[in-house]
Amino acid sequence: MSGHGELKILTGSANPKLAEAICEHLGCNLTPAIVGTFSDGEIRVEVGANVRGDDVFVVQPTCHPVNHNLMELCLILDALKRASANRVTAVVPYYGYARQDRKVVPRVPISAKMVADFISVAGAHRLLTVDLHAGQIQGFFDVPVDNLYAAQVVLEYVKSIGSPEDLVIVSPDAGGTERARAYAKRLGASLAIIDKRRDAPNQAQAMRVIGDVQDKIAVVLDDMVDTAGTMVAGAEVLAQKGAREIYACATHPLLSGPAIERLSQSAFSKILVTDTVPLRPEAQACEKIEVISVASLLAKAIHNIHTESSVSVLFTP
To answer: GO biological process annotations for this chain's record (predicted)?
Structure first.
């Protein structure tokens, strides 16, 4: 027991399997809680054990259905606050609304900031997340935020694909260049960037590859895969440029709309994702999709937070 009380792990309905895997790594059991829905659609939450004075971690990614899971998280946090938990950490492996982190046109909300306010006001003393879409979202919170990187578990898989001389890490757009460069540096691999531009309104988007991918094993790297349109189009361009094999790595497999059909028919040999969000049944049936778990990474972070040890040791491999 730390100065913050006994360690307790709770989960909502978003990704209970991940919470159970975290508990296995920590050698503890999930704290019982009733999380359901009343007949009128309102969410019901009831913590089933005493948490007074305890150090509680709530595992709940805000993935599809985003609004439902976000509301569940906030109600669980409020229940713990009113049950006199000493410290409550929101473990949100996937942070929904992260792509709405600034005003790109007039008269729109900054939704990522509003979600941060929801979580803070509901009772979170700390946030633990994985691969935030935009790092500056950490500044939207007035409580500590630990943003872990899936590179800790993804790099070992990428190393097994080929030698550093054969690998080229590909950013699907200019915005992901920093992430791709970090992977390439740690692997000793080369770097390529897919440049997308629209020469005129209503014309097809042109895609060019900056870097050498001829006869290389290309690994397209992104923080999430949603409809997979950009990622699949990038794979086609890489194939045209002579890439020998093409892989994809994405931390958050949102896989909405036509994503699974697109990926199944794509030039990718494999698409590596993590279990920050649960796979849809159709995705589980896709032979190209392979899942690795971030449970051990989150368990280490939870242990270090609970014992007041350094969490920064987990930020880089």
So the answer is: 5-phosphoribose 1-diphosphate biosynthetic process; purine nucleotide biosynthetic process; ribonucleoside monophosphate biosynthetic process
